[in-house]
Every structure is written in structure tokens, then in C-alpha cells.
Amino acid sequence: MSSPDIGYLRQNGRVSKVASTTLRDSFSVSLTVGAYGVAFGAASVANGFSVLQSCLLSLLTFSGASQFAVVGVMGAGGNPISAIATASLLGVRNGLYGVIMAPRLKVRGLKRIVAAQITIDESTGVALNQESRGADAMRHGFYLTGFGVFIFWNLFTLAGALGAQAMGDIRAWGLDAAVPAAFLGLVWPRLVTKRDRAIALAAVALALALTPILPAGLPIIATAFIAIAVGLRP
Amino acid sequence: MSALWIATIGTSVIAFLLKYSGHSIPERFLSNPKIQRINALIPIALLSALVGVQTITEKSKLIIDHRLAGMGVAIIALFLKAPFPVVVLSAALTSAAIYNWF
């Protein structure tokens, strides 16, 4: 099914038409996902990061799960190495998205740097969703969603960080429960099969069992071994 | 440099290098199905662990408090297919109500 063209996008010196469905997909994903930035900004400040550090994480790391992880581990009293390691394990999938997108984007130099920075769940997801509409639509979906999420995510991070800073005692506002609830909201859609749910429960149990024994942060990283053990089985 | 700055900068640098390396290496290196499967499972394990640790631990001790009530409501909201903001807000409101009034 074809949809009306709504505008034009120039890429690699070539101008192509943008389908209205691609634009609509990109925009709705950008706005909804970008709005989660409020939760991140608030969580970041609640866990001791400054407004500036929170905004830099959104601008530079720009990967929701990794950002929540680094503030979560530091907030739990972990050292920076465990925080960086946890966040980086969660960031590996962006590298895999890059492998998928690179042959379709075919960009070099500065453009490749920009494309890499906006290679996240949402931009790749919308791009793959446009596959039936052709290669141009995939690129449009990738860039429109990538830039769209980037803009909204960063604006909403600032709003959330400033809001949390103005609160004072974050427990009186329930922010200490909002943070794990945000993690739960991120992981919930991934719990599709019985095996996924078993891994989730095992990870919670292992992390809690190790918490009194290991330094903060390590109990979380340790649960990656559950994923590796299950993934290696035929 | 403070620990928070090290975490902020370190995470950002590695996050970018991971993204950029994906754009720069040939597809066949990562097409191994086991790598793909582990990669899909790691977020489930780590995010679930974070849920547990952030809900019922404080400074290396297991503690049950107002946060657990908030999470209970968040789970109910998710079972009712509530959107993300409703999940987070309902958890926050429940937790805050218990913290302030008990």
C-alpha cells in the first residue's frame, strides 16, 4: 500500500520523498519515547547526579537503558567501574544495530559519526518496520526517529532533572520507587516467553542474594552470566 | 575528578565506541546466532536485577519499605497494559503516600 508523500529529505546529494506513514511512525515514537526522558532526568538527579551530568548523559550516551543503569548502580553505592561495565553491557546491542544499519545507510566520515550516535532501539526499530516500503523509507525512518528521539529525550531529561532538583526529599515524592518502576517498564515488553520471565526472576533472585556479599554494582553485572549461560545452550 | 564524572564520561565514551564499531565492522562477524541470542537476553537479566536492587536494597542490606508497595502497584499497572508514564506515576504516588503517612 502506498501512502502520500509529505516532504523531501536530502541524503548523499540525492533528494527523496518522505512518505507520510514513515513520518507519522517516526514522530509518534520520538515523542512517546522522548517523554521517558523525564523519568531519566528525575532518576539521575535522585541518584546524586547533577543536572549538567544528567543532560550530558542524555546528549553523549544517548541510550536509555545504559543511562538508567549507570545512575542506578552509582545510586546504589557502586563504583564507577561497575557502573560503566553495566551500562556498556546494555550498550552492546546498539553496536549490533549498527551492523544491521550500516549497509543500508552507506555513510562515511562525519555522517557516520552522526548516524552512529543515533543508532538506538527506536531508530533501528522504525527503520526495519519500513522495510516493505523500500530502502529510502528505511533511511528516512532511521534518521527522522533518531533525531526526533534525540531532541525530545534531551529536552525531557532537562525538565525531569530540574523538576527533581526542586523536590528536596525525593522519597516524599515517590521518586525512589519511580526509578525501579521505570526499569520494570523497560524490561516488561521484553518478557515475551516463559524463558524470558524465568531469566528475569532468576536475575532478581541472584542480584538480591549477592547484594550483602559483593560490593554494590557487582551483583547486577553478575546476572549477565545468567543471560550468557542460557544463550549458549543450543 | 569525582566518581560521578568518571561514570558519566566513561559510559558516554564506551557507548559511542560500541555504536560506531557496529557501523564499521563487517556484518558476518556478529551474525553468530549465539551472540545474537545472548545479546537479546542480557538486557532482561541486567534490567531485572536493577529492578530488584533498587526496590529492596539499601547500602548492601535487604530492606522492605514503601518502595515495594510502589512496585506492587507498578506490576498491577503493567498487567493492565497501562502505558509507561502511568506505570511510573502510579508507583511514585503509592510509594510517596506510604512514606508520608506511615
From TrEMBL, chain A:
Presence of keyword Transmembrane helix: yes
Localization per record: Cell membrane
Record-linked Pfam families: AzlC
Keywords: Cell membrane, Membrane, Transmembrane, Transmembrane helix, Transport
Signal peptide: none
Protein's membrane topology: Multi-pass membrane protein
Family: Belongs to the AzlC family.
Name of the featured protein: Unannotated protein
Organism: freshwater metagenome
TrEMBL record, chain B:
Transmembrane segment boundaries: 40-56, 68-99
InterPro entries: Brnchd-chn_aa_trnsp_AzlD
A Pfam family: AzlD
UniProt keyword list: Membrane, Transmembrane, Transmembrane helix
UniProt-recorded name of the protein: Unannotated protein
Taxonomic classification: unclassified sequences, metagenomes, ecological metagenomes
